[in-house]
Amino acid sequence: MLTAIAIENYRSIVRLRLPLQQLNVITGENGSGKSNLYRALRLLASAATNQLAAKIAAEGGLDSIFWAGILLPEMGQSAKEPKRLRLGFSSSDFGYSMVLGLPVPSLSFFDRDPEVKFEAIWHGPQLRPASALAHRDGPVVQSRDAAGWKMMHHHCLPYRSIFDTLADAKTSPEIMNLRESMRSWRFYDHFRVDVDAPARQAHFGSRTLVLHHDGRDLASALQTIAEIGDVKALHALIDHAFPGCRVEIHVMDGKFHLMWHQSGLRRPLNAAELSDGTLRFLLWAAALLTPRPPALMVLNEPESSLHPDLLAALGKLIMHAADNTQVIVVTHSSRLRAVLQQDKACSHIPLLQQDGVTLIADQSWLDAPAWTWPDRMR
């Protein structure tokens, strides 16, 4: 389980340290930085999937996502320092952080790609010289085992992460397990439910342990839960949200069709006939009741387009998922937050914006998790 997230110099997030529990609810007014936090977490995850440069390019390049305001001494940074984006997390077992900067000027057409300046992987909750397992300083990558430190690479490409480099060489299984754990993180921020949404179409199905991000394989994902997942929870949560209703999957000519049985109707409804709210709830059920729980699941405004009466059922669905995976929920809904806070393992993190800077409300420096960046480790 992740115990802390650290972010520096990403849009409105100048310096943020988030303590985490098994279930976390992040709230705040519009413009407080919730979306920036969500996007920063996606960037952090991309370090393990070799998509970091592409993700940053999609946001307009590294220079466009740096904090654009005035740096103040109390922010812990100096205007004389080179611009750096810092992202990292720690857990009870291992931690990872990276420091990104602008590339050295060149004639390359890819002169907006970020360069990885520093990286570190460590054992335990905090990076210290004694806990470091791997370290990257520019092109030089080193790792440590029982015999001590050894050089892994002298000329690591600036756009490749330490995970890519160490995957090419014999390294500790702990580091590779950390990479696979990060690759398992899942992010859900929007499900289409319009008339042309993929979830409304029948499809050729196969066993689907993880719902596609656009919901195109909803019927096969629900059938997979029915056959090898927690089908009792699926039926119970649907009945809680829609009393007397149930979902069933039919297969015709190899295509999977979602059929919705509702009391009072003489025939079941197909996915194309469902209301937006009903379809969206079924998508969340398929995503959260996955038979292959990830290490971390991040949900961005899951309450969108749902009737307020469904939020209690959605909250129970999220709490059920948190029994098997760590969950971060970014939400506007005070009602959903109230439901989730019934769980004793739930942590509420309220964000606010002050002078354009995203902060955690009422967090003092004593409340923030201890943190050391790899470029500041001495």
Automatic annotation (TrEMBL):
Location of the Endonuclease GajA/Old nuclease/RecF-like AAA domain: 1-48
Species per Swiss-Prot/TrEMBL record: Alkalimonas mucilaginosa
PANTHER family: DNA REPLICATION AND REPAIR PROTEIN RECF, SLR1056 PROTEIN
Top-level taxon of the source organism: Bacteria
Protein name: AAA family ATPase
InterPro entries: AAA_GajA/Old/RecF-like (IPR041685), ATPase_AAA_core (IPR003959), P-loop_NTPase (IPR027417), RecF-like (IPR014555)
Segments forming domain ATPase AAA-type core: 181-336
